Amino acid sequence: MSKKNPQDKLLVFALGGVGEIGKNMYVIQHGNDIVVVDSGLKFPEEDMLGIDIVIPDITYLTDNRDKVRGIIITHGHEDHIGGLPYVLRHLNVPVYATRLTLGLIEGKLKEAGLLGETKRILINADSVLELGSITASFFKTNHSIPDSVGVCLDTPEGTIVHTGDFKFDFTPVNDQYADLQRIAEIGKRGVLALLSDSTNAERPGMTPSESNVGVELTEIFRKSQQRVVVATFASNVHRIQQVFNAAMATKRKVAIVGRSMVNVVTIAGELGYLNIPEGMIIEPEEVNKMAADRVVVLCTGSQGEPMSALTRMARSTHRKIDILPGDTVIIAATPIPGNERDVGRTVDELFRLGANVIYGPGSVSGVHVSGHGSQEELKLMLNLIKPEYFMPIHGEYRMLRQHAKLGEAVGVDPDKIFICDIGDTVEFQGGVGRKGSKVPSGNVLIDGLGVGDVGNIVLRDRKLLSQDGILVVVVTLSKQDGTIKSGPDIISRGFVYVRESEGLLDEANRIVTTTLHKLMNDKVNEWASLKTNVKDALGRFLYEQTRRRPMILPIIMEV
Amino acid sequence: MSKKNPQDKLLVFALGGVGEIGKNMYVIQHGNDIVVVDSGLKFPEEDMLGIDIVIPDITYLTDNRDKVRGIIITHGHEDHIGGLPYVLRHLNVPVYATRLTLGLIEGKLKEAGLLGETKRILINADSVLELGSITASFFKTNHSIPDSVGVCLDTPEGTIVHTGDFKFDFTPVNDQYADLQRIAEIGKRGVLALLSDSTNAERPGMTPSESNVGVELTEIFRKSQQRVVVATFASNVHRIQQVFNAAMATKRKVAIVGRSMVNVVTIAGELGYLNIPEGMIIEPEEVNKMAADRVVVLCTGSQGEPMSALTRMARSTHRKIDILPGDTVIIAATPIPGNERDVGRTVDELFRLGANVIYGPGSVSGVHVSGHGSQEELKLMLNLIKPEYFMPIHGEYRMLRQHAKLGEAVGVDPDKIFICDIGDTVEFQGGVGRKGSKVPSGNVLIDGLGVGDVGNIVLRDRKLLSQDGILVVVVTLSKQDGTIKSGPDIISRGFVYVRESEGLLDEANRIVTTTLHKLMNDKVNEWASLKTNVKDALGRFLYEQTRRRPMILPIIMEV
């Protein structure tokens, strides 16, 4: 573990977060020392039926568990901390995080019953960590949650900088300034490789300041004669602060609705990241008792999530809050790709209730800005750091590609830009970087309590079942003479509505009977043959009749 | 059927197209005369698992079949013509359409084997139809397909104007100008009610001219040193024309790839709606033989549809066309809400192949504009027509609401604006309009060959099956002594991967056995009780162990 062993290579790779949005997990290894940056989760793609969340495959880390010095977390969002309860169960190493981030992590670990057995270490932007041959230091960044940091990892092979998620907000909320000077200083010292956030690499220009949203919110609150409901990401603590600021400016009280919103306001409030005067928060039960123009409801549901507070209000199924005609509802978020229809449906329902709804892309609504930097900010980071090598991270492939083009534009040698998939390694030795061999990587699917017990076969079955349902065919054959003793009975689920399709199912029955008789006349009596033949004959018949391919499950018993 | 019966009411309603995008079908009835405008389909919502397409419930029309004088089609897009093959089977009435529209309809009816038995009547913008007491005339509009018209329906109660889909394009492709003068003239004569397209009612300003796209395409074709692939909607004939224009200007030949693209180019070309010089079109097989900078591939797949031409090319599974590094791929379309992820995945794959991909919202890419008018154009239509009553149509509820606000803004009396759901009628008598009673309406789901045989129960089952799969439990009991003769056997599909979960399934087996023994000791032997108890006990156990709720199907046989 000497700092000077010239044989030691420096390895840099992602186990999650490249070629995808979510489950961020980056690994920096020098010799026998591994430092992990972030440990996030991803929400399932639409073809991952029934899956709750997805985390990275950490086989490489568990295979090298003695080398892992710790996990550094850049900020408290789910795609950076959400995997920890699963990862720490298999790899109990110290977790390093700033105060708010640690507060949110501890909330999670408590729920998972892991608070006692895990080691969590508080850092701040001035901390310096000796992690074997790797020295970690930090710099403050702007993002949609306070206490976000970038990470500077000094190794004997050179310095690696990981930006975390960032934008450059020159007028940040609650004085959460980025430390431009320190970033410049790191760049000046010389950086071997930069790993930088690509989320908005497709967007020209600068992302507007979060403060702009505050101005707009105050204006809307002021104009509204009735209640104002604001839905936003619970994780956007700056946005939450601005809702309180606007409420104060317009003499309204704030009710917090939705589990994750209550959770974040509680933790961020207790740790001093929200500046909320005594008495500003009211209980949801009090909303109906107060004058309508004195109330703000701050809630979850900005993505149209089916069980969220705003969705329930929109459907008039919320137990405590009704939307009344004339109320103003602000959706202070842009739909994440895939959620557009759900958000649209919520807006429709709110309009039907007579609400005045403010929604749509931030550029139109004025009540949302991104937490990620656009092209000019990404170029600013590249200019400050002036890395020799560049790895765009945190984005779908097309975003990484666009970010790579920005890197070229600011003068990084195209041969020194690496666009990686998860598991692709970049190795540095003697100042030279090249693509190395692959390490194990992939998606671990979590369904209920099951971690990794749902694989491709199960997903394929769910897909099939979801399209055309299933038919179970039950027949009892006689052992003696091979005649049909009972059945065939056909049970249909998700295929056709039985009452409407008696003729079809009767005919299906006849097909099964005929097929079995024919097989038995031909003395075919191996189990597998009988089943395959029934399946094929029935499948063919049903496809001809309906152009559908239900799953067919023949159950043939012998008595 | 007299034109002068003062008892006759005028009824206006939608069977599809309001509160939704798709399956447009509007009904105008005066006394015993019914005129239908459009007969479209809708693509299924994401919770309609396994459904192929959705059409309106036409019970009202079949119940009143003797009164239906015909179906007028405004233009040849699927959401206006796609329902015809299903509707005409149950309601064989004349279909009126302009030349290109009729060409596209006849293609559909031919495929459905309905060409012989249906009656189709060619109209043009100057046609006047006497449909009982209703007189129909037409006006040319701008839309993303030529030959689009709006409909003017003169009834004894007053004039109803239906815009069809429209924008105002002052520099249209192929001289397809809207007939502003005629629209103005109709307005001058006095219009009782306007039904107008709300698709872009949320968008401020004017939709840019389709011609802008042509300029951009030519520029990109010119800059590209290699092949250019353009994916766009097959139904956008103007866009297709401009691809040919840009190809001519840059001395490239065009290969047409994708079934619906070939279909539209053939029909529109034969009918003279595409201006394509001899020899411009090459076969897909010739692409590889030609100099790369002399070729354009025009294809389907702009929405990332899994089986489309562009998706296959992106995945390197297209039989004839490979994407080579340095090729330019233009996605000349904006993703329809819900398709963003599929399009994103296609762009990623294309980038991975080394293509230069031009994509994103039209305002960024420059290669797409909408075919629907934005707020200023909607106000222009309202100003030209100056209707007494106004019904926003063709849009989700929020779009109808925004359109209603535009109506108010230009001076329509708010009490004379009706936002309707499907089946809501507006009745006019003596110059006064009011909401009338409801008529039957709804979604008819088409799955394969089945029309309407998949209902809520089947969809609920598919949803359940898609989330956690199914367990089939097979047990044989003895008739004599009620002991278990064979089983329980548990078959799992889409629940857990069996090899990984033997312990769980063994335990599940024991639970079933114990439950049955207990019931039999208690002399419970009704079929239904046995099944319910097995289902409950097993469901409880599995939920505790896995937090999943698979469908459980107990099959208990007696021998």
UniProtKB/TrEMBL annotation, chains A, B:
Zn(2+) 1 binds at residues 75, 77, 80, 143, 165, 394. Its main location: cytoplasm. It is an enzyme of class 3 (hydrolase). InterPro entries: Metallo-B-lactamas, RibonucZ/Hydroxyglut_hydro, RMMBL, RNase_J, RNase_J_2, RNase_J_b_CASP, RNase_J_bac, RNase_J_C. Residues 22-217 form the Metallo-beta-lactamase domain. Its EC number is 3.1.-.-. Ca(2+) binds at residues 50, 52, 447. One of its GO terms (cellular component) is cytoplasm. Gene3D superfamilies: 3.10.20.580, Metallo-hydrolase/oxidoreductase, Ribonuclease Z/Hydroxyacylglutathione hydrolase-like. It catalyses: 3',5'-cyclic UMP + H2O = UMP + H(+); 3',5'-cyclic CMP + H2O = CMP + H(+). Keywords: Calcium, Cytoplasm, Endonuclease, Exonuclease, Hydrolase, Metal-binding, Nuclease, RNA-binding, rRNA processing, Zinc. Its cofactor is Zn(2+); Ca(2+). It comes from the Bacteria. The active site is at 197 (proton donor), 372 (proton acceptor). Pfam families: Lactamase_B, RMMBL, RNase_J_b_CASP, RNase_J_C. GO terms for molecular function: 5'-3' RNA exonuclease activity; RNA binding; RNA endonuclease activity; zinc ion binding. It is found in: Cytoplasm. One of its GO terms (biological process) is rRNA processing. Binds 2 Zn(2+) ions per subunit. It is not clear if Zn(2+) or Mg(2+) is physiologically important. Binds 1 Ca(2+) cation per subunit. Seen in 1 crystal structure, it is not clear if it is physiologically important. Zn(2+) 2 binds at residue 79. An RNase that has 5'-3' exonuclease and possibly endonuclease activity. Involved in maturation of rRNA and in some organisms also mRNA maturation and/or decay. Counteracts the endogenous Pycsar antiviral defense system. Phosphodiesterase that enables metal-dependent hydrolysis of host cyclic nucleotide Pycsar defense signals such as cCMP and cUMP. Homodimer, may be a subunit of the RNA degradosome. PANTHER family: RIBONUCLEASE J, RIBONUCLEASE J 2. This is Ribonuclease J. It comes from Paenibacillus albicereus. The lineage of its organism: Bacteria, Bacillati, Bacillota, Bacilli, Bacillales. The gene is rnj.
